[in-house]
Fold this protein.
Amino acid sequence: MSAYINIYTNSLTDDLIPTILKRLNEHENVLDINSSFSFRNPNGSLPIVFRWDKPSLEIFNENNLKLNFGVSLKSFDLKEYKKKLFKDKIIKQSFVQKILGLFKKKKRKVAKPIKLSAEVEAQLQNYNKVFSLKYHSGDVFENHFATLIGAIITELTNGVCHFTQENMWYDAKNVLRESLVNLYTLEELPNHINKNAVAVAS
């Protein structure tokens, strides 16, 4: 199943790419971000080469592995975004009513529309761009590296990001900490936390 990490920010330039690669290597063995990747492309791909050196899925250890994420960079306007959310809500409500009418005895799961808290809305009004990273949530490698990449870009650009799969919002101050807590075991975590001088709340 496809999922997205949407990063809301004001500035994304190719000057950030070496820093992104450096930050990724603080946590994983990422060998390369392909030179074809550029934030100047409104729609494109983000290919990376990495090595997986963990006991989990050790069959892949010692091999160079590749991932290719779909990405896009678009202009962002909060007012238009809220209009779209409202429209999506109406469409989904109408769809639910039709489903219930056709299948009264069966329960159907329908994705809930995105809701914006006052805090998130206040943050979003400061941004004019949205960078989207598409990945497959059921793929261990894609989920792992998409989460890291999304968190690092959000932090570097002082942005706000939305993980659509979990419907969770994070800002630049908490996104990396929360992502590391979700990605690594308690035994692994100190090595990753200490590299970024952040503390896990007890």
